[in-house]
Design brief:
44% of the residues lie in helices and 14% in strands. The protein is α/β, with parallel strands linked by helices and 451 residues long. The chain folds into three domains: 3-181 and 383-417, Rossmann fold (3-Layer(aba) Sandwich), CATH 3.40.50; 206-379, Glycogen Phosphorylase B (Rossmann fold), CATH 3.40.50.2000; 423-451. The strands form three sheets. Strands 3-2-1-4-5-6-7 form a seven-stranded parallel β-sheet, sandwiched between helices. A six-stranded parallel β-sheet has the order 10-9-8-11-12-13, sandwiched between helices. Helix 9 links the parallel strand 8 and strand 9. The protein is elongated, with a radius of gyration of 24 Å. Mean pLDDT is 88; it is low at 407-419.
């Protein structure tokens, strides 16, 4: 059996955010036919799992080395390659999960940090991602848009070349689309959590749910204004932001701005509500199944173009009609498959009318819900992650794999690996591939250069 190490930088436990959920599902599906360990570089909370769980923090190199040496294939997200030298210089088969374009995300996330810090965060994220693109054997992205975008970066880094192209002209063995997925089980409501429980939200109210965290690249302010206007004509409309305290990510300024705006408009805890904790992964269906519609609004910028809004998957899973801002790949899906309504960015009136329709137009809602049920099967986890499952069944290095491919150092410059371990590895590599005569000639050539 293949030993697979899956690495995430998010908290593993009852309350998991998107990257951890995705890593968990990878480990779960791969564990059916492989030996799997799921590792987090941050926090590991008590939770049952059908695979091994590990926490290895940056700096715990010996502990990481044991896991790395055990693995045949390493699947990683985020900053793992930058945090562990063994992974940067690894000869293992590496799969980089780049479904979240971190450098584009940081353009918005770092905006409020000051010019120097913002520039540093973006350049660091770009360097980290380029290192992964230069070294990994296989890449997973979330959409066809992302795939085209990453193919441009891979071309710039020299990874689109005769070796990778020769037997794979579509480059699907180099980079494949593996979107965020959803459970194939039908969600079941097991307890009341919002309607009739949360003060100010009655069982008969129409509930709009924001199914994830609040980050700077989203636009909750236009949404709050739209709900404030709509509640004047429909006093039973309620908006709930399901989570504001991310398990790992620090609270961003948009949370404070949203609370302040709701207070200024006089709708805080009347028409607009904020859940101050993070909902447990195993309990989220209870919140979503009490809602009448799901919503996701964002600004218009380059992050939007290549983003993959994972909260939309939960709306699909629980059968919710939805209102979303145009510009990303999911907006195209909502529009073409008639799953709800797509609105222009930062247009309060258009958003208000769209929300009114998905809450009160019964005929439209029935059609949208039926379409959601039809489309959801396309995103079941086993289907979404099928490129990864197939790859691990026949794992191999990329066609342009070089055992001495340069690693990107902390200063952002590429440097070749060195040392006795590297020299020994190179000796055996050339001995297997070229034979003893060629190895002897290489050694003699090297000795002549050092005289």
């Amino acid at each position: 059996m293949t030993n697979v190490l899956v690495i995430t930088g998010d908290t593993i436990g009852p309350r998991m955010a998107g990257p951890a959920i995705r890593a968990w599902k990878m480990a779960e599906l791969l564990s059916a036919d492989n030996n799997v360990a799921l590792m987090t570089t941050t926090t590991l909370e008590p939770i049952d799992a059908p695979f091994e769980l590990q926490r290895v923090r940056p700096g715990e190199d010996a502990k990481f080395a044991r896991l790395h040496d055990w693995a045949h294939v390493v699947v990683f997200q985020g900053h793992a390659m930058d945090q562990f030298a063994a992974l940067r210089n690894s000869s293992k088969i590496l799969v980089a999960d780049i479904y979240d374009p971190m450098h584009l995300e940081m353009l918005e996330q770092g905006r409020e940090l000051g010019q120097a810090t913002w520039k540093l965060r973006v350049s660091t994220a770009t360097r980290v991602l380029n290192d992964q693109l230069a070294r990994a054997d296989f890449f997973l992205c979330a959409s066809e848009r992302q795939r085209l975008f990453y193919l441009g970066q891979l071309t710039t880094l020299g990874r689109v070349n005769p070796a990778t192209y020769a037997a794979d002209p579509h480059l699907e063995r180099l980079i494949s689309v593996a979107p965020f997925g959803l459970d194939d089980s039908q969600p079941t409501h097991t307890r009341d959590v919002v309607k009739g429980v949360r003060e100010g939200i009655r069982k008969t109210d129409k509930l709009i749910i924001w199914g994830g965290g609040l980050y700077n690249w989203f636009d909750p302010l236009t949404l709050i204004r739209a709900v404030a206007q709509l509640s004047v004509r429909h006093s039973n409309v309620r908006l709930l932001f399901m989570g504001t305290k991310h398990p790992v990510v620090d609270e961003m300024g948009i949370v404070t701005h949203s609370l302040r705006l709701a207070q200024e408009l006089g709708v805080l805890n009347k028409s607009v509500f904020f859940n101050e904790s993070w909902v447990q992964f195993s309990d989220r269906q209870n919140w979503l199944l009490e809602a009448d519609a799901g919503v996701s609004t964002h600004m218009s910028h380059v992050e939007t173009t290549f983003a993959f809004r994972t909260r939309i998957l939960d709306y699909l899973w629980t059968g919710l009609p939805m209102v979303v801002t145009e510009g990303d790949s999911f907006a195209e899906l909502v529009e073409t498959q008639n799953l709800g309504i797509v609105v222009p960015p930062q247009n309060v009136d258009a958003l208000e009318h769209a929300l009114e329709r998905v809450l009160f137009d019964k005929k439209f809602v029935a059609v949208a819900r039926a379409n959601v049920q039809r489309v959801r099967a396309e995103f079941f986890w086993d289907r979404a992650l099928s490129p990864l499952i197939s790859f691990v069944k026949d794992p191999r290095h990329a066609a342009d794999y070089m055992i001495d491919r340069p690693a990107l150092s902390q200063d952002g410059k590429y440097r070749k690996p060195y040392g006795l371990t590297h020299s020994a590895r190179m000796f055996w590599h050339y001995l297997r591939s070229e034979g003893p005569d060629r190895v002897a000639k290489r050694i003699m050539s090297r000795l002549r250069k050092t005289r």
